[in-house]
């Protein structure tokens, strides 16, 4: 109990210093918990829980998210599960939708509230990986006594936000552990793993949202693997991941107005005539490729005579 009292006093002391709040995202979160959510660090409590009916409704609304995240959750748990870690996937409101954990540790994690239906927001349970990642919309690592409530100072967690196909916050993925030997280095490694898994889930969500589209990587982005454009058969941008939006300065208005991918990518601007010529050349090259170079078959596929195709090939230097 003395440890809990010391923790609560430390939280109160830090949050009274404006410089500490300005220089530490953790202390800023502590102050939010006190000033906005009217919480007290000495409290011993578990997170709030939604009813079974509410959880069912939330899970149904997040069906695509759960489906697109399942394989990544299984893959990540296969790597970290035996080391005493619990995985939690929440929606954008911090409601735990899915979890992975060893059955032998279920009782302990359930007591802490690391279970489906629990609400891991700052308003519910103070500073924590999930709630603070959602509040700040960034990846967060919370090591033991960086939690707000004294009842959570045995817990360490690292969380990454997950964004939907429009770049909006959609979910959070968390790894939590109560191992006493957990340190900053261990959490840094786990943090990178959870960020990588969250990114793969984001890409899965993006591909699901634009099924049938062509996907183009943005080479100018800091992380090209995360910066994708969904493009239709007319080369118009249908959607862009958050990384692509940041790299290309895109928003919903520009995308919905009808934006050619070549313009979005700032590729060499050519005139309308050259654009049509390139489109015709591309169509002929595709037809010839599909027919393995057989001009007669390509002409039939294009709906023109063999002689016409030969003339076009000559004009476009395709012979």
Question: Could you describe the 3D structure shown?
Answer:
The chain is α+β, with helices and mostly antiparallel strands and 319 residues long. It folds into 3 domains: 46-208, Beta-Lactamase, CATH 3.30.450; 210-264, no CATH class; 272-315, Orthogonal Bundle (Arc Repressor Mutant, subunit A), CATH 1.10.10. Helix content is 49%, strand content 14%. Strands 2-1-5-4-3 form a 5-stranded antiparallel beta sheet, with helices on both faces. Strand 1 (85-91) and strand 2 form a beta hairpin. Helix 5 (63-80) packs antiparallel against helix 9 (184-209), helix 13 (272-290) packs across helix 14 and helix 14 packs across helix 15 (306-315). The mean pLDDT is 90.
Put the structure in a nutshell.
The chain is an alpha+beta fold and 319 residues long. Helix content is 49%, strand content 14%. It contains 15 helices and 8 strands.
> How would you sum up the major sheet?
5 strands, antiparallel
- Principal-axis shape: elongated
Rg from Cα: 26 Å
Number of strands: 8
Task: Tell me what portion of residues adopts beta-strand conformation.
Answer: 5-15%
| String of helices and strands | HHHHHEEHHHEEEHEEEHHHHHH
Helix content: 40-55%
Domain module count: 3
CATH superfamily caption of the largest domain:
GAF domain
Key descriptive features of the protein:
319 residues, alpha+beta, Beta-Lactamase, Arc Repressor Mutant, subunit A, 3 domains, three-stranded antiparallel β-sheet
